[in-house]
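Hello support,

Our group uses your service weekly, and this is the first time we've seen a run hang past the timeout. The protein is Dihydroanticapsin 7-dehydrogenase. I'm not sure whether the cause is the sequence or the server load. Input pasted verbatim:
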Amino acid sequence: MTILDLLKPRAGLRVLISGGASGIGAVIAEAFLEAEASVYVCDIDAEAVARAAGRHPRLFAGVADVADPVAVERVIDAANAALGGLDVLVNNAGIAGPTGGVDAITPEQWQQTVTTNLNSQHSFLRKAVPLLKATSDNPTIIAMSSVAGRLGYAYRTPYAATKWAIVGLVKSLAIELGPDDIRVNAILPGVVEGPRMDRVIAARADERGIGFDAMKDEYLSKISLRRMVTAEDVAAMALFLASPAGRNVSGQAISVDGNVEYL
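Update from on-call engineer: The timeout came from a worker crash unrelated to the input. Re-ran successfully.
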C-alpha cells in the first residue's frame, strides 16, 4: 500500500453525519460518498433532507432536531439499520446562536445554543459509541468545533463557550476511548464562505454600527492568508481523519482556517 492509498478512506465505510443535509455537513457527506462510503445524514430542515434522500443510492437521510435526545436516539437506530453498523460519527450539527453583549443575551438564547451545539454531541456519542466499539475498521469520531473554540469571540459568547467545550470533550474522549481503538478529533473551521457566515457578519456589523463590507474586510484582515476557507477544505480534513493515513491522529483540535490570528 502506497502513501497515496493511505490517504483515501476505505470503500464501504459507514458514516453518520448530524446536520448533514445542508451547509458544511452536506459537503462532508458528498466527500464521503465520493470515497465510496455509505452515509446517513440527519437534519432539522425537512426540505433539505428530502433533497438529500433522493440524490445518491448510498445516501440515507432523516429529519431530526438534535436538541431532542429522543430524536437523536431514533436517528442512531435508523442509521444502524440502514448502514448495518457504524464506522464514523461526524458530530456536525450546530447553530450560530445570538450576537450581542452578554447582558443582552437571554437565558433562553444561551440555553438553546448550549443544547444544540454541545448537549447534542453527547446525545449522539451516548448511543453511537457502542456501535463504534463493535467495529474494528478504524472507528473514528469527528466533532465540529470552530476557530471560536481556540480564540475569544466578543459578542458571540454562547457560541464560543460551546465550541471551547467541544475541544475539551474531544481531548477527554480520545483518552477514554483510545484503548478501544476509537480515534476522536475536532475540526475547527475558520471563516467559512457562504450564506451562514454572511449572516454572522451582518449581525456583527449591526452590533458594531458599521457596514457589511467593512465588517467583512475586518474579518479577512485577521486571517494570515487573507481569505475565507471553503466547506470543501473542511470536508477534505474530515476525509483525512477517517483515512488510514490518520490512524495515529487522535485527541487533536485541528484548525482549517488560514490561520485566524484573533477574532
